């Protein structure tokens, strides 16, 4: 397993939003956009104990970091992310991750509660030294509660993630997005949006 601090800021955008150019930001160069197709299944107890504690647990395929991801609250605007290999068991949470949240789940079983399919366009912001400083992810999302049955929820959002604490760059990238028409996100995570807004299956 690996672990890192995730520092990101989310924005809601309309479906017709035109992603701006980030080439004017000081000290970074915007790379060519890269398209990824992501599919994630989220797990929780029947009474959503992880969600109530602002914890997310998912198994995601596609992209550069496919695998199991456990995200735990850390500080304002940041979460601690623990990553485990994808493995072959799609519906069985790895024991080491289940143990991390055992105090929250209270021994209740973890099962799939939602599925999100995302078409993600990533723009990397690279520093003058060639190191990745931040990523802008433009996501077209289709989300549904599980078990499936009701119509899915579809929306578009943009995330700015800095690789390490860099308030100046984060603020500058956010200003570019807001000027282009983005709005601060109404939900803290994609899962929260699905649980709040997607219709339950009948």
Descriptive account of the structure:
This protein is α+β, with helices and mostly antiparallel strands and 202 residues long. It has an 8-stranded antiparallel beta barrel. 17% of the residues lie in helices and 45% in strands. The longest helix is centred in the C-terminal third of the chain and has 13 residues.
Strand order of the largest sheet: 1-6-5-4-3-7-8-9
**Beta-strand share of residues:** over 45%
The major sheet is characterized as: 8 strands, antiparallel, barrel
* Amino-to-carboxy terminus distance: 38 Å
String of helices and strands: EEEHEEEHHEEEHEH
Question: What is the number of strand segments?
Answer: 10
Number of helices: 5
Q: Tell me the helix content.
A: 10-25%
- Overall outline: globular
Key structural traits:
globular, 10 strands, 202 residues, 17% helix, eight-stranded antiparallel barrel, alpha+beta
Describe what is shown at a glance.
With 202 residues, the protein is α+β, with helices and mostly antiparallel strands.
Write the layout of secondary structure elements.
Blueprint (H helix, E strand, L loop, with lengths): L1 E12 L14 E3 L3 E11 L4 H4 L3 E6 L5 E9 L2 E7 L10 H6 L1 H4 L5 E17 L4 E14 L7 E10 L4 H13 L3 E2 L5 H8 L5
Antiparallel strand pairs: 1-6, 1-9, 1-10, 2-7, 3-4, 3-7, 4-5, 5-6, 7-8, 8-9
């Amino acid at each position: 397993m690996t672990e890192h601090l995730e520092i990101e800021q989310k924005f809601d955008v309309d479906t017709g939003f035109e992603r701006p150019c980030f080439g004017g930001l000081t000290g970074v160069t915007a790379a060519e956009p890269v398209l990824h197709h992501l599919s994630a299944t989220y797990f929780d107890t029947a009474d959503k104990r992880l969600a109530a504690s602002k914890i997310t647990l998912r198994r995601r395929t596609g992209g550069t970091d496919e695998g199991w991801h456990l995200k735990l609250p850390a500080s304002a605007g940041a979460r601690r992310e623990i990553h485990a290999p994808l493995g072959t068991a799609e519906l069985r949470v790895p024991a080491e991750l289940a143990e991390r949240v055992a105090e929250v789940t209270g021994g209740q079983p973890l099962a799939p509660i939602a599925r999100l399919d995302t078409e993600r366009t990533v723009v990397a912001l690279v520093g003058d030294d060639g190191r990745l400083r931040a990523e802008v992810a433009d996501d077209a999302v289709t989300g549904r509660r599980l078990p499936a049955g009701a119509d899915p929820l579809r929306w578009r959002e943009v995330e700015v993630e800095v690789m390490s604490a860099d308030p100046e760059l984060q603020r500058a990238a956010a200003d570019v997005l807001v000027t282009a028409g983005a709005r601060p996100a109404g939900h803290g995570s994609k899962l929260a949006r699905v649980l709040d807004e997607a219709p339950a299956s009948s």
